[in-house]
User: What shape does this take?
Amino acid sequence: MGRPRGWAAAATGRPPMRSPGRPPVARREHRQRFWEAIASGATSEDAGVVAGVSPAVGTRWFREAGGMAPCFGPHTGRYLSFAEREEIAICRAYGYGVREIARHLGRSPSTISRELRRNAATRGGQLVYRAVIAQWHRDRCASRPKTAKLAANNRLRRYVQDRLAGVICTPGGKAVPGPPARWNGRNQARRQDRRWASSWSPAQIAHRLPIDFPDDESMRISHEAIYQALYVQGRGALKRELVACLRTGRALRVPRARTRQRRNGFITPEVVISARPAEVEDRAVPGHWEGDLIIGLNRSAIGTLVERTTRYTMLLHLPRMQGYGTEPRVNNGPALAGYGAEAVRDAIASTITTLPGQLRRSLTWDRGKEMAQYAQLKIDTGIQVYFADPYSPWQRGTNENTNGLLRQYFPKGTDLSRHGTDELEAVATALNSRPRKTLGWRTPAEALNEHLLLAHQASVATTC
Assistant: This one.
């Protein structure tokens, strides 16, 4: 007769359990070397070779972790190491007793006895100690998985999902779904439509929670926990496709080490950026703007205006003129694409004149020919125009950063002329209602409203 079922479990003192499968070839130290190589900037394949596994295994490890390195603490010596388990297996094969092995390793006899009893493998109906099997049992028992906070707190999860993937709306509350888009599990393609959503960053969400819930300590989470819920497989809190709502649209998080690579005859010396007042640099006084165009497919464009102090954003609708695509192009004729000098001048004038005079102090623009009529713009609006130096986009850093945020809604390689005024207002409202770290996690709309209230109170005080 064969041995009764559960004999091995009874012999080892452990409850019966299903076999967890074949022990993995790689151990903890292999994964630790792998992530150290990733941190140094190596690719997944090269890091796998450094760790002693195949390039395919390295790629799989990277994807399973979402590009986020697990936490590997140093070996303290309190517990048996793999090298010590190998010594135990060799001594056991030579027939040494428990106390002899303990003296050889400098460990307590009870430690060796417990190791042989707990982590031995059953082979052919007998208990056989193998170092690889013992280390595998130890790693499984040492893991202490716990439920993610977003999975346990439904209210917090709904808040995070709404700020990350909520539908954007016009100022009147009308939902604007945006162009149809789908996520295929890979990095978001640059020249395709993307999902329109609230798209708060994890840092914005994490720092806004104490403001919205000052007395509720359960409504707290770190931005790293949100990234883990998005990227790490098995966390089970947020759906992986929500990574499409992040500004980068990456399916995997990129290690930091991997990220480390015209003519303007109408511009006169008095309008170059060096002639700009010093008060513009310190951002203490609102009313100084930066502007540029974002270009799309088929010579389509959208104008962007960003206030330097509050980061308040306004978008310019630049529709194509009648005859575009049907009439032949004429040298020195009107720019039928919609972003010629006259069209841009009129769009800026009609948009910026909706603001009070104290918020129309200066405008810094790139050296594009679309601003050739800046002199007339100054007459129409009273705003002073300055131009950045050639090939110096950092001099308009606020606008360049905002254009990067807008590319989430208006990707390169897409036709921007299909977006109407309502859609541009909805996107601008979405950006102006996001909390910003540079504003103390206030939104640009809140910061601008605060400046307007202060200006109104000062004007009332001077007239009394």
Summary: The CA atoms of residues 216 and 443 lie 21 Å apart.
